[in-house]
Amino acid sequence: MLDQFNIAINGAAGRMGQRLIVLSHEDPELNLVAAIDAPGSPSIGKDVGQIAGIGDIGVVVTSALPDRVDVVIDFSTPDGAIAISQVCAERRIPLVEATTGLTESQRESVIATSQETALVIAPSMSLAVNLAMKLVAEAGRALKNLPGGVDVEIIERHHRFKEDAPSGTALKFGEVVAQEMGQTDHVHGREGRSGQRPQSEIGYHALRTGDNVGEHQIVFGMMGETLEVYVRGHTRDSYAYGALTAAKFVCKQPAGLYSMQDVLNL
Ligand SMILES: NC(=O)C1=CN([C@@H]2O[C@H](COP(=O)(O)OP(=O)(O)OC[C@H]3O[C@@H](n4cnc5c(N)ncnc54)[C@H](O)[C@@H]3O)[C@@H](O)[C@H]2O)C=CC1
Ligand SMILES: O=C(O)C1=N[C@H](C(=O)O)C[C@H](O)C1
């Protein structure tokens, strides 16, 4: 007999939310009990299976978290993340937080949830992206004292509907590189007579085109050669499967802060 967890999705009617509805509904270890979306959203009151394209599944979209929820996954907006994290903290419900674009103070507020319950927070739930973070850290370590210098630039590509830039994942890649190599200046695009490039910079470039589900390219440019770590999502299921793995992990943990490196044992 499998352990079954009662799962709730916040941001259920969104692009990610819909994939999570489909995949959690198919998963024998998960019992989808709640689909939450913004108060006033046109999806409220509709069966979430209809919204996700799989027909009625008997779970209606609401704006409040019901009782008997073991774990929540949030892919919504910064305001949605703050609201659901407060509910999870009050009710001590483990939370997987995937929303990006939070300000520093919003991020601190969400992280405070981990004092009351288990929290996984990550800008990307993808296995490939989280593995690429390890590779990038290793590259940074190996290249940091190169006599000719190394220029690190991060290029990310996403769909035209994305509201934050650069992506949370690109910022995290930059943080990982800076931890290893010590760059202090984070520069977003270049224009005009920007001058010669100092080694203290990491440059970020955000492309927004069509329906791209997410690509990240971390460029280590040296004198004579270039190393690139490139990770490309094909479908949103790469993030959705990671989030479901994180949900199964987090609901077995004591209160505290966990990363996808913990979830994936990387
Ligand atoms: N960590 C990761 O692996 C990934 C993170 N994301 C992030 O997840 C977030 C959502 O992405 P998408 O699904 O593409 O966006 P979306 O715009 O398609 O969906 C967001 C959903 O949240 C709902 N929402 C808005 N305010 C809310 C509130 N206060 N409470 C509950 N629901 C609310 C919206 O009505 C909408 O249905 C973004 O921040 C995105 O960057 C996206 C993909 C992967
Ligand atoms: O909005 C998206 O789509 C994505 N957002 C995340 C981010 O900002 O890093 C993760 C993924 O790249 C898709």
UniProtKB/TrEMBL annotation:
Per UniProt, residues of the Dihydrodipicolinate reductase C-terminal domain are 129-264
What is one process in the GO biological process aspect for this record?
A: lysine biosynthetic process via diaminopimelate
- Matches recorded under CDD domains: DHDPR_N (cd02274)
Q: Which residues form the Dihydrodipicolinate reductase N-terminal domain?
A: 6-125
Compartments where located: Cytoplasm
Q: Does the keyword NADP apply?
A: yes
Q: Can you tell me which residues bind NAD(+)?
A: G11, A12, A13, G14, R15, M16, D37, A98, T99, T100, A122, P123, S124, M125
Q: State where (S)-2,3,4,5-tetrahydrodipicolinate binds.
A: H159, G168, T169
**Family, per entry:** Belongs to the DapB family.
Q: What does this protein do?
A: Catalyzes the conversion of 4-hydroxy-tetrahydrodipicolinate (HTPA) to tetrahydrodipicolinate.
Which protein, by its recorded name, is this? 4-hydroxy-tetrahydrodipicolinate reductase
Gene name tied to this protein: dapB
